[in-house]
Model the fold of this input.
Amino acid sequence: MFRSEEEFKKIIDKAKVDTRPDPVYRQKLRQQMLLTFEAQKRKPDAPETLAFETKQSIIIKLKDRLTTMKNITKIAAALIIVTGIVGMIFIFSTGKPSFARIVEPLFNARTVTFKLTVQIERQPAQTLETMFMEPGLMRQTMPDGSIQIEDMTKRQMLRLNPEIKTATFIEFESLPDNQNQEYFLEIRNTLRQAQEDDPESVRELGASQIEGQPAFGYQISKPSIEITIWAHADNLQPIRIEMTVDDLKGIKGKATLHDFEFDVDLDESLFSLEPPEGYKVNSRTMDASQPSEKDLINLLGMTKDIPDSQLPTALNITAMREFLEPLRNMFDKDQDLNDQQKTQQYVALVSLTMRGLTFLQLLPAESDWHYVGKSVKVGQSDTPIFWYKIEGADTYRVIYADLTVKDLSADQLPKAPDAQTKDSQKNVMDVSEVIKK
Done:
């Protein structure tokens, strides 16, 4: 970094050290010194390593230099030596902060506030105001003003709509112990695993300017996820974290966490799962297990009790809205159901739909799935409507219009040139108009 001891002394002289011992000035003194070293370190022609002396000699020479400055006090000198020397040695010897140093604030903070910007491919970005409190409490304010509060230690969630004063209480069923329902815990767990168990997945990105601030970054690459973390070059506080899902079997999405504040004073009442007074409350359970073939069969069979009903024209979220309309009309006409019960029935159908489509979306390209249920009536026997291949299997799983399932070899499958396939629609969740309650 410095070509000679003389150059090192010149850099010290440029700090313009204030000699007053007041605590405010002591801190200012330290910052002036650090900024001077940082400015020198960033010069493009500056070597990355010290060429003229060891770390130990740097400590001695810096101490001697500081204590011989005119009128500088012993207190100020001690402040520089004790609180700043470790960081200076780190910068001089390596020129970069370690991955462990950068992620440390995320692991140690009891509370964190940040903004979460979510961008799903071909859908508008949404920014959520987010609060987190240990051990697993999350509060998010949506762009429309609605609020979502999660307590994953209890596997419960509360959704509030302040505009119309409604509250929906949700309890998750079959939630795996290692599965978190929100971005922050997932990101933090991935960072911890990379640090402790998979350091080879961590790649240094080096220095950059992020949001107008000098930053140093690292990137963690996993088979289905990539996380980039940028921290301020001086205080090592995270500035921005980006989580990119490159291959969720066709869905591409990105979550960006920014505008961090750590260990802020948050009232625990902000994370209460008790609905506010005066709110109309609905309660329901949500299956949080991994979607399976059974979920797709449940989706296809939702209209089996409606005479002459047909299967969906396609397996995507847009076609499913049309498919669900007869059921919604049936609920609306049911005099034995009040408005709350009608809403609960329809929400349950939407949940079944999303689980069935999620199973389909998660099937890999190698599954070679086909759907040919358009214009087919529910209940027709011996009419294949969907088939796919399980990884490692020699046969295909075939679902019939009467919702039975058989295993067939490839040469037993029907010819279906007009079938909906993974290649014809990579993202069954891609919509211009989402299902509405």
